[in-house]
Prior knowledge:
By secondary structure, the chain is α+β, with helices and mostly antiparallel strands. The protein is 42% helix and 18% strand.
Amino acid sequence: MTPPRRVLRRLAWAALAPGLLLGSVGSSADETPADPHAHHHQMMQAPPPVSRRMANYVAPEVMLVRSDGVRVNFAHELDDGRPVLLDFIYTTCTTICPVMSQTFAEVQKRLGPEAARVKMVSVSIDPEQDTPTRLAQYARRYEAGPQWSFYTGAVDADVQVQRAFDVYRGDKMNHSPATLFRAAPGQPWVRLDGFATPDAVLAEVRTQIAQK
């Protein structure tokens, strides 16, 4: 006797169900891992507006290493009498940092000979990977002039610098763009949060150069 059609359908479903369930489990296990740069990509797609504020930051007395291999007291490095332009980057960043470094490069280019009157500082937030040699290669990529220095160092010292300027976010993947400018030692810092354009940065810098 031939089974009714509804019975056949039930038998077919019973046979297929385990495979469907296994397939579902398998596809879940094979899903692409979360993109560690997702935060950066989202920020690039919808960049926040640039905000400007004044802040009183004090550079810590810690030893960092410049890209030329020289160990220096970071606080003393900033106090050579020139206005200071400061940002935080890391060399393997593919989103935020290239934009910020290109902005510094454009500022340097537009200042021309006057660039020597400004101390430009980029501090790595990935000191374990960013050796002085790697930073030197990064500096050449952006044609950094002698007034633009790059720094790395021991993790503890590096984190102290990040905390002092309120850019430490616990992980390099969580960092956000920030550009800081100080007219002279002892003066407050101008903080530009977001992707500050070369025009915005130059507006801060040129005002101080004109006064010297």
